[in-house]
Specification:
Helices cover about 55% and strands about 10% of the residues. It contains 14 helices and five strands. The strands form two sheets. The protein has a three-stranded parallel sheet with strand order 1-2-3. Strands 4-5 form a two-stranded parallel ribbon.
Length: about 325
């Protein structure tokens, strides 16, 4: 039996994963596999909170995300990888927790407020969207996770989970540990237009993009907004392309780009072309693994089945304890 602390995190299957997902979560998850008992799940029920009108693509997105995970370094030998909807106990615990969660806790959720404003092309005035932090709490405490790896902006999500677990324990006995937020390093990486990289903004470079697609997208990237001409000195500190250089290019190139840009000795197009080749090289191992798993769909399904079976065993034991605690 493992003595490692358990962590859990998940992703919604709303489409293929991009570089923001890779650097914001996946690489951190992969690096944590040797130090923690890791549970990572694809949150397909959560996808319904915003895509409930047209969910037909969700099953395909689930498969794509699993392949992206495996390609980025997650492995079933070190982590439990599973699909949320295959573990029906998540829905049962969500129902029970929703009975004790005060509505004001959900209404003050900063993500809820932000997305109501930002996502104006969908009707988000549903109980499911308001209550998704309760389902999120069920996902986490079902496995009695000690921690949740998150970026700073996601800490409020973990705090709501802690409050819900604390409230349940107050009413029914000490069943759930209160999970901690495990802050992970997230490098600065923006989309092609300098906004947050997102599928919704159509500004992302995907893990599944071909080398030619990467080259084409990099040429579209916004650079130093104050540099109108090649003869104008640039400022790499405000250039998104330079941030990518720092992630993917070698030290000599990074130093050269920094100096040449400030002296107007290199143009933005040349700089972008150089970065694109380093980026393609950096993504090479991921592309090789993606090709391997794309050719072996039965292997991917076996990973789904095995991971979900491991998760279901723990979820079943937890729900027996929950039912007993509420005298059901």
């Amino acid at each position: 039996m493992t003595t490692q602390k358990r962590i859990l995190s998940g992703m919604r299957p709303t489409g293929p994963l991009h570089l923001g997902n890779l650097h914001g979560a996946l690489l951190n998850w992969a690096n944590m596999q040797d130090d923690y008992d890791c549970f990572f799940f694809i949150a397909d029920w959560h996808a319904l909170t915003s895509d409930y009108e047209d969910p037909k693509n969700v099953p395909d997105h689930v498969k794509t995300i699993m392949i992206d995970w495996l390609s980025a370094g997650l492995t079933p030998e070190k982590s439990t990888l599973f699909v949320q909807s295959r573990i029906k106990e998540h829905a049962e615990l969500f129902l029970i927790l929703s009975m004790i969660t005060p509505v004001p806790w959900l209404e003050r959720n900063p993500t809820y407020k932000d997305q109501i404003v930002q996502i104006n092309n969908k009707d988000l005035s549903t109980f499911g969207f308001l209550g998704y932090p309760v389902l999120q709490a069920a996902d986490i405490i079902m496995y009695k996770a000690n921690g949740v790896p998150v970026g700073v902006d996601q800490v409020p999500h973990v705090e709501i989970t802690r409050e819900i677990a604390r409230r349940f324990n107050h009413f029914y006995g000490n069943v759930f540990p209160e999970p901690d937020a495990i802050l992970t390093r997230t490098p600065k990486i923006l989309g092609l237009d300098r906004r947050k990289m997102s599928k919704s903004y159509n500004n992302a470079i995907y893990l599944s993009d071909t080398p030619d697609a990467v080259r084409s997208k990099v040429l579209q990237m916004v650079t130093d907004p104050q540099r109108a001409r090649k003869s104008d000195p640039g400022n790499p500190d405000v250039c998104n392309v330079y941030e990518f250089h720092k992630l993917y290019s070698d030290d000599e190139t990074i130093f050269t780009i920094d100096s040449a840009c400030r002296k107007a000795e290199i143009g933005c197009v040349e700089c972008k072309k150089m970065m694109a080749e380093f980026l393609i090289k950096g993504l090479g191992p991921i592309h090789e693994k993606r090709a391997y798993y794309l050719e072996r769909p039965d292997l991917v399904e076996d990973i789904f089945v095995d991971g979900s079976a491991r998760a279901a065993e723990i979820a079943g034991a937890t729900m027996e304890e929950v039912r007993a605690s509420i005298s059901f």
